[in-house]
Design brief:
- The chain has 17 helices and 19 strands.
- It is globular and about 70 Å long.
- A hairpin with a 5-residue loop joins strand 7 and strand 8.
- The chain has 3 domains: 12-106, Phosphorylase Kinase, domain 1; 113-285, Transferase(Phosphotransferase), domain 1; 328-475, TATA-Binding Protein.
- By secondary structure, it is α+β, with helices and mostly antiparallel strands.
- The strands form 6 sheets. Strands 14, 15, 16, 17, 18 and 19 form a 6-stranded mixed sheet that branches.
- It has helices spanning 12-17, 61-66, 70-82, 113-118, 124-143, 196-199, 206-223, 233-242, 253-262, 273-277, 280-283, 328-336, 347-353, 360-363, 378-391, 441-456, 464-475, and strands at 28-36, 40-47, 53-60, 91-96, 100-106, 146-147, 156-158, 164-166, 173-174, 287-288, 291-294, 297-300, 304-305, 343-344, 369-374, 395-399, 402-406, 417-426, 429-438.
- InterPro entries: Kinase-like_dom_sf, NAF/FISL_domain, NAF_dom, Prot_kinase_dom, Protein_kinase_ATP_BS, Ser/Thr_kinase_AS.
- This is non-specific serine/threonine protein kinase.
- Its cofactor is Mn(2+).
- Residues 1-22, 311-335 are annotated as: Disordered.
């Protein structure tokens, strides 16, 4: 259970027992209980500073330690950190005390899509809109090596604008969990929405499994009932194996053709995300949302026609405006003043930096980014970056602990632009993150291998991996491996 939106039958007294009178860690006022599971409870809360409503998932640390689910929780955090999309419930931050872990998440006011469908089938245009948003979110995840594996209307929420938000990545998987045969082997999912190849327990392609579930969801939205159902679960499984379903008379021929391709029992023949996006029924009225992430917030660019932009959004920061060139006099004054302290990494950020749970290779095309831990002063790191830039005649733009290096040569994809940012890991250690923001991949790799890495090598710590892992455990107040 990653998120809930409506109060359950749990009494108010049980809610009050789990909340303090003072704001949680001085930042959030905890409100009513929204829902609960085996290891966690979800509360409505309010950000004391901004007044913004959020949902906070409170996880009992003792329970996850006893159940051996620490790695599972870390993986879920890392996944949610990376799959930030307008149609996916956002994880804002993770906090921890000695007994609890807190996921601070987007509060989605409209409730579950399931509640809407329970009242009856949807009109075709509305069902199509939800399906389009679902496929946009699922395609975004798949492009980043993340597979949900439990898609169903109960895990699809609606915001106040009536837009769909995918939630509950608790059963999701990432590419590094695939076995040598290239398949996943964990049986998971909800029976009515599970693909036939998962039932066979011979291994499956998780992307194809998600697509099957999307097909079942589309059928449910349009029909108001399941394509494969029976009170006897084994009989239902047999129906899923055969893939035989009857479409209601109000289904159009185009919709039936799409459903037949989505619910093909042969995963090798099942339709793919790009093919879905080119389907005639799907494309009607489809708008592909462009967005970028700035200051850790999702920012939408105006909607553009799908025909003009078929693929998922480009690099998270590629649409942001470049920082203006500082005036020489101001730059001189800035050098004379001390640099501000780097932003500290909370548990939320740390897990995405931790090598054991770092998914950056899956999320930046070609691995166009790198991180390393350093014990050097921030000023020394920035000076070194300036020296490297000077050697290759790159322009340097600085803002606090962020340094942008920009080449002058105009390639096919524009000038090479590299962003570096320094974060505080511990009082004595910092993490330096390097990302390609623009330009040719080959030119970026050549610059990194010949100039950047050799130039920064003396500032890197050999024990960087253990330093980050130790910092993660400390941030979450978890016992280290040596304890």
């Amino acid at each position: 259970m990653a998120h809930a939106t409506a109060p359950t039958s749990t009494s108010t007294s049980s809610s009050s027992k789990d909340q303090n009178q003072s704001p949680l860690l001085g930042r959030y006022e905890i409100g009513k209980l929204l829902g609960h599971g085996t290891f966690a409870k979800v509360y409505h809360a309010r950000n004391v500073k901004s007044g913004e409503s959020v949902a906070i998932k409170v996880i009992d640390k003792e329970k996850i330690l006893k159940s051996g689910l620490v790695a599972h929780i870390k993986r879920e955090i890392s996944i949610l950190r990376r799959v930030r999309h307008p149609n996916i419930v956002q994880l804002f931050e993770v906090m921890a005390t000695k007994s609890k872990i807190y996921f601070v998440m987007e509060y989605v006011r409209g409730g579950e899509l399931f509640n809407k469908v329970a009242k009856g089938r949807l009109k075709e245009d509305l069902a199509r809109k939800y399906f389009q948003q679902l496929i946009s979110a699922v395609g975004f995840c798949h492009a980043r090596g993340v597979y949900h594996r439990d898609l169903k209307p109960e895990n699809l929420l609606l915001d106040e604008n009536g837009d769909l938000k995918v939630s509950d990545f608790g059963l999701s998987a990432v590419s590094d969990q695939i076995r040598q045969d290239g398949l996943f082997h964990t049986f998971c999912g909800t029976p009515a929405y599970v693909a036939p190849e998962v039932l066979s327990r011979k291994g499956y392609d998780a992307a194809k499994v998600d697509i099957w579930s999307c097909g079942v969801i589309l059928f449910v939205l349009m029909a108001g009932y399941l394509p494969f159902q029976d009170q006897n679960i084994m009989v239902m499984y047999k129906k899923i194996y055969k893939g035989e379903f009857r479409s209601p008379r109000w289904f159009s021929p185009d919709l039936i053709r799409l459903l037949t391709k989505l619910l093909d029992t042969n995963p090798d023949k099942r339709i793919t995300i790009p093919e879905i996006m080119e389907n005639r029924w799907f494309r009607k009225g489809f708008k592909h949302i462009k967005f970028y992430i700035e200051d850790d917030k999702l920012c939408n660019v105006e909607d553009v026609d799908h025909a003009d932009d078929v693929g998922p959004c480009s690099d998270d920061h590629s649409l942001s405006e470049p920082e203006p060139e500082p005036e020489p006099e101001l730059e001189t004054k800035r050098k004379l003043t001390s640099l501000p302290r780097p932003a500290s990494l909370n548990a939320f950020d740390l897990i995405s930096f931790s090598p054991g749970f770092d998914l950056s290779g899956l999320f930046e095309e070609g691995g166009e980014g790198a991180r390393f831990v350093s014990g050097a002063p921030v000023s020394k790191i920035i000076t070194k970056l300036e020296e490297i830039a000077k050697v290759v005649s790159f322009t340097v733009r600085k803002k606090d602990c962020r340094v942008s290096l920009e080449g002058s040569r105009e390639g096919v994809k524009g000038p090479l632009t590299i962003a570096t940012e320094i974060f505080e890991l511990t009082p004595k250690l910092v993490v330096v993150e390097v990302k390609k923001k623009g330009g040719d991949r080959g030119e970026y790799e050549e610059f990194c291998n010949k100039e950047l890495k050799p130039g920064l090598e003396n500032l890197m710590l050999d024990e960087s991996e253990s330093a980050v892992v130790a910092a993660v455990d400390d941030a979450l107040h978890l016992p280290s491996d040596t304890e």
